[in-house]
Amino acid sequence: MFRLFLRSVVTLIGSALIGSLVVFLLLRLLSGDVATIILGKGATPEALAALRDELGLNRSWPQQYFDWLFGLVRGDLGKSYAAQYDIFHEIWSRLGLTFSLSVGTLLFSAIVALAAGIYSALHVRDWRGGLIDVIAQLGLAIPTFWAALLLIGLVSVRLGWLPAGGYVPWSEDPVGAIRSLVLPILALSIPMISLLARYVRSSMLEVTNEDYIRTAMAKGYTRPRAVVVHGTRNASIQLLTVATLQFGTLIAGTVVIENIFALPGLGKMLIEAVGNREAVVVQSLVFVVMLMILVLNFIMDISYGLLDPRIRHSSAGGAHG
């Protein structure tokens, strides 16, 4: 297990370094002069020169890259040119909200999808399993922003159960924070639950034909209990794999959801930075989002090792070989 952990840490650090370089180069190769992006093409040469000097853009690209990289480590990314906020502190203050929204959606979706997928597999030959499949198809067809608007109209406007927007920090009112995140999490979860439930169902259907299921039934287990007890671990591995691959799509969805529900997270900050042509802010935000995805992949790699002993043993065997 230690070798798996060490290998995952090395992969995380290497991927983060390569990703930071890709983000840095893409911004400059595709966008051109950062100072011109911020000030616009109508800016005077004097204003452009002053901004390049202020942002350190008159230095070589390797110097700019390492200054930015070490700034990430030190917590010093400079100031926003338009809004004049400290970039690192602003990202840090908004990270908790986006993290809560993303992880909350992932956990809620995984739990509901696991239950729905197992139920559908156990009732694959009757109308109950078919109903789950139909609901899953409908969930995949509903765009996230439309689901958000429907939830606002029904739950907030008509029923008045939950707020239609805004955010209450956890430190001020934990209950208020949960209330403000319920609808955004539900809107993000609808397509994810539908997708994950289909994979869980397929995985559980494969398990039902395995020899150890028949052995468990011979020992007195009912078929549903044997499938649930012995098949959930295999289904969980499949669930983790698909959920990890979908996390990038989930983060992209938070950009839309945070703007619909007026949540002051990284997604809303990204839209504002793009609107203000804050190229340096966009660069740091893209890297932070990429780092969140890499960290989740790291956690999932460790989870695979805990759920499946074969992964731990293959890692140890590969190291010895």
Shape descriptor: globular
Task: Bin the strand percentage.
Answer: under 5%
CATH architecture descriptor of the domain at 94-275: Orthogonal Bundle
- How many E-type strands? 0
Helical residue percent? over 70%
Q: What is the end-to-end distance? A: 16 Å
CATH class of the domain at 94-275: Mainly Alpha
* C-alpha-based Rg, rounded: 24 Å
Mean pLDDT: 81
Instruction: Give me the secondary-structure category.
Output: mainly alpha
Low-confidence stretches: none
Total helices: the number is 13
Looking at the structure, the CATH topology of the domain at 94-275 is: MetI-like fold
The main β sheet shows up as: none
CATH superfamily of the domain at 94-275: MetI-like
What is the ordering of alpha helices and beta strands?
A: HHHHHHHHHHHHH
Main attributes of the structure:
about 325 residues, mainly alpha, MetI-like fold, 13 helices
Structural summary, described in words:
Helices cover 80% and strands 0% of the residues. The chain is mainly alpha-helical. The chain has a domain at 94-275: Orthogonal Bundle (MetI-like fold), CATH 1.10.3720.10. α5 packs antiparallel against α10 (223-260) and α8 (174-207) packs across α10.
Short description:
With 321 residues, this protein is mainly α. The chain contains 13 helices and no strands.
What is the topological layout?
Layout: H1 2-31, H2 34-39, H3 45-55, H4 61-74, H5 87-122, H6 127-141, H7 144-158, H8 174-207, H9 211-218, H10 223-260, H11 266-275, H12 279-307, H13 309-320
Helix pairs in contact: 1-12, 5-6, 5-8, 5-10, 5-12, 6-8, 7-8, 7-10, 8-10, 9-10, 10-11, 10-12, 11-12, 12-13
